[in-house]
Amino acid sequence: MKKVSEIMTTDVATIPGSARVSDAVNLMRRKGIHTLIVDQSHEQDAYGIVTAFDIVAKVTATGRNPRQVRVYEIMTKPCLVLNPELGVEYAAKLMTSAGIHTAPIIQWNLLGILSVTDILNQGDFLENPQEDALAKQFQALLTTARATCKQNGAASDACRQAWDAVDAVEAEAAYQKAEILEKTAFEEFCEEYPEAFKDREYDTWCSG
Amino acid sequence: MKKVSEIMTTDVATIPGSARVSDAVNLMRRKGIHTLIVDQSHEQDAYGIVTAFDIVAKVTATGRNPRQVRVYEIMTKPCLVLNPELGVEYAAKLMTSAGIHTAPIIQWNLLGILSVTDILNQGDFLENPQEDALAKQFQALLTTARATCKQNGAASDACRQAWDAVDAVEAEAAYQKAEILEKTAFEEFCEEYPEAFKDREYDTWCSG
Amino acid sequence: MKKVSEIMTTDVATIPGSARVSDAVNLMRRKGIHTLIVDQSHEQDAYGIVTAFDIVAKVTATGRNPRQVRVYEIMTKPCLVLNPELGVEYAAKLMTSAGIHTAPIIQWNLLGILSVTDILNQGDFLENPQEDALAKQFQALLTTARATCKQNGAASDACRQAWDAVDAVEAEAAYQKAEILEKTAFEEFCEEYPEAFKDREYDTWCSG
Amino acid sequence: MKKVSEIMTTDVATIPGSARVSDAVNLMRRKGIHTLIVDQSHEQDAYGIVTAFDIVAKVTATGRNPRQVRVYEIMTKPCLVLNPELGVEYAAKLMTSAGIHTAPIIQWNLLGILSVTDILNQGDFLENPQEDALAKQFQALLTTARATCKQNGAASDACRQAWDAVDAVEAEAAYQKAEILEKTAFEEFCEEYPEAFKDREYDTWCSG
Amino acid sequence: MKKVSEIMTTDVATIPGSARVSDAVNLMRRKGIHTLIVDQSHEQDAYGIVTAFDIVAKVTATGRNPRQVRVYEIMTKPCLVLNPELGVEYAAKLMTSAGIHTAPIIQWNLLGILSVTDILNQGDFLENPQEDALAKQFQALLTTARATCKQNGAASDACRQAWDAVDAVEAEAAYQKAEILEKTAFEEFCEEYPEAFKDREYDTWCSG
Amino acid sequence: MKKVSEIMTTDVATIPGSARVSDAVNLMRRKGIHTLIVDQSHEQDAYGIVTAFDIVAKVTATGRNPRQVRVYEIMTKPCLVLNPELGVEYAAKLMTSAGIHTAPIIQWNLLGILSVTDILNQGDFLENPQEDALAKQFQALLTTARATCKQNGAASDACRQAWDAVDAVEAEAAYQKAEILEKTAFEEFCEEYPEAFKDREYDTWCSG
């Protein structure tokens, strides 16, 4: 899975909140873009965002004069921000479940901007669908876990950590497909080796 | 105010609902677009629409394989359609209040497609804000109404029709600005000429 | 499937946006209706709508005096409009997915109004459920397609058009039932006749 | 203000959750109604509701056969219920802010049903708008409070209770009109009689 | 299933709508709670509610001074109320489907308050999941119905009433699990005893 | 304004997505908390969250057995995350506008968790409302800007930067109060010194 930082646009246009909407329109038209970031006003401040949709919804649609409306009146602030390390598929979920088409990437500073169109054009979901990737990863981790536990014993810390990794990917894959897991691979392992891991904090597992 | 037909894009890409999402992605990437129209399956059928957002939200974000998902599984159908004669400002309101970025224009046939970006770039809301246009129109109609009623009498049909036009634009302008009208220009006229229009169907006006 | 024009109510009451809400209430009570259309103020203008729900929500519930509120303050404008040729089932989907109980039918002029109650009482979904109708239509089109291709050859335009019709109805039926199609009838045909249709614009089909 | 019990419809049609949607349609058509109540299945159970909108949205619009869908598949349960003693204006707010057109009235048993149309037709909001009623009530309570405190002393329980009543109505009126109160009538009183009520639980009032 | 009255908190803090938000904050902090009920202003009045979320959303997030905002400006009124007899599982559904974390319990008077946390901590859904309870209840009622009808005859009122009870619980269980019932237990019974119950108001059942 | 890191809870409980909901309930009950974080399954993975509300809404309310439902089936993933440096007021806005009661704080690692109750109890919005803080900051920056420009000249970079700071805070304050600025302090300055800053990228300012 690609990371957000690999496909984001790093050339980001910013505008002050006190600028007129007509300035925002001109800047967007000149640069051929539809999103501007509104900079922080001080260090603890949040970032804002203003899009073509905001302008069309709150100025054009209401007949207001764009020379008499300021950017802060129509911006969204604070706005959803993305972490550059996040996987593109997770960024896709975060943005679309919030109904958002574009989001800034911030880590200390403003690093870039990511749009749904960037994801469509530069994501690798066509060549490398996540469900296939997770299925492979699960198989690899499962093989490792069984080998590790054989070598170190079913009650060893190494065995336990290996199963934690299997568990996490198996749950993630089931979550993505909205599938129900009757029994996880680990739970099957527990039935074979009931002596394992009796001390988990969330306590019903391997309770045998 | 420009009409939708003046700024819409007439080169529209269509795709069957039975096509794979991978086909839709390839078509979008090749044409540099982010909206496809799904054609009617028979005459009374509605049009559907599929956007980059739909693909990112329902395929990328869920990790599904785009070669195994079909367009009809992720399209919106029926979709909001616009009339070619509609004013761009009204199209802006209709689209944005429904949270929609693109809509097809249909009159018997599919004529084109209109996006929020088209409105931003080609609307004339910067040069000719609707609130100014409505204010001018109101003044012109008001002058006409007063002249017409002087000439034809306050109880004449011509006078009545002239005031209907004033009323409509005055209400529209107040609606756009979310203003409250204590008394309309017509109601002021009524106080001067209480004999006018006693027979309106919605009956409290000029009740004197 | 019936068309919207077959079951709509053609006797529609209109009211100007400048009228008082008390006028709207009186008109509704006198006519025993709960929807009024607000006429266009000029040619490119949109239609508006005001319902009993709007009055109860925005005037009754807030304790305001209906003699001091005007219709334009509580109307919805522009409103969703329906095409008279649209099938009733599609109108049902368009209205209910927008949370709307009544919509005007417009083609150049205001032709009528359609409510959810009209659909309940006069639709033929009880006698003639669309899923049955689509299933029959699919069978008929499938028979035709196979015959046409036999007669004209698997690579003929006539064959191709016949399959387009099958495809469209099959996708529509699957869409209605939220079913997944592993393989369409056309794709099965492709396996028998791999020489067919290599040139589709959306290119994975019949790629053999 | 009228009470819900004064304008509700007491003739309510019920249907079991196990009935077919086609039965619900026939019952609605025969009785000329658009809401049915789904009875409790046991004493602690909630009531359900099924409306014409539910049928059109979940059966007609999706093309399903109403003879193969049961009422429980499309009903809303539990549903919002109203108290018979509630004022009609509050019922209006509760229903419309939840986007609901009809609600059952329940107190131990099912007493009736109230629709937005009932409120429009039988509410007295036209003759007796709540904002006028609250304004009168406020004046009367204010006169009483000042008289009571004069007679019993500013620190008396009777005075305190009288001001509680004034306060409640003043806040309610301001709430209805979305107005801000810089200083309440009671706070003005406090400035005149700073010895009053030092012991309120929410402690900044009359802190002088 | 427990009743709402068994797990609600009966010690409820109230505040007048005219109080300052700073008073509400201090009261919440002192009592370690996050919900206050706003009392009725007169008998037909509704109850209001103000929560920590309301304060954080409408005062903290907007930077307003809590000493200058009054409770009525940020409360929700009328608010959803629960019946003390309602089963906890139904209260859970009613609250969560409305997006609400806390609701007052009212019957004539304010009896208590119920929060999502109360349900989590004191509900018996862990020990006694409703799906198991309904399954047991269904089996018991089914046995009773078959016995009753054998004894009194398939066309007897006693038989009919017994089946109504079976039907109600079967539909409820299917509703909870979002399952489709091809044929209900009663419909199977009808096939065995087609003479039964020809006169139901919703008329397709046992039509044989 | 306090920072998120100053008031967040650093003792955060996590749970694997593959755990049973019954484990989550027991963990919450034992620790007296209502939010658990679901850890990443690999480095680019997002964090998930599961709350008491999720459990009550998706398990209790639907009658499902919590021993047969896993955490991943009811969690929200990816979830909104907060930056530790963000001001509490902005966190308040971000959380409440998304309808969220609790969010994790992440920077490379999971640092803590912040709830609406934390903000209510530990924010300093009561002692130090942001609108007062912004007003003071604006006055200080304004004084600085005027002094800087006097000293360095109206066309100097130092002057320009000083005004950028004024502008940002003035827009932020107006945004918070939803106020319209007819003319900003900077625009007034421009009228006095029209030679200033002709070259801004967003071009209408100081255009004289």
TrEMBL record, chains A, B, C, D, E, F:
The record ties this protein, via Pfam families, to: CBS (PF00571), CP12 (PF02672)
Q: Which GO terms describe its molecular function?
A: IMP dehydrogenase activity
Per the UniProt entry, the signal peptide is none
- Per UniProt, residues of the CBS domain are 8-67
Please, which domain of life does this record's source organism belong to?
Answer: Bacteria
Q: Which SMART domains match?
A: CBS, CP12
Q: Which InterPro entries match?
A: CBS_dom, CBS_dom_sf, CP12_dom, Diverse_CBS-Domain
Question: Which controlled-vocabulary keywords does the entry list?
Answer: CBS domain, Oxidoreductase
The enzyme's E.C. designation: 1.1.1.205
Q: Specify the enzyme's EC class, one word.
A: oxidoreductase
Question: What is the protein named?
Answer: Inosine-5'-monophosphate dehydrogenase
The gene for this chain is guaB_8
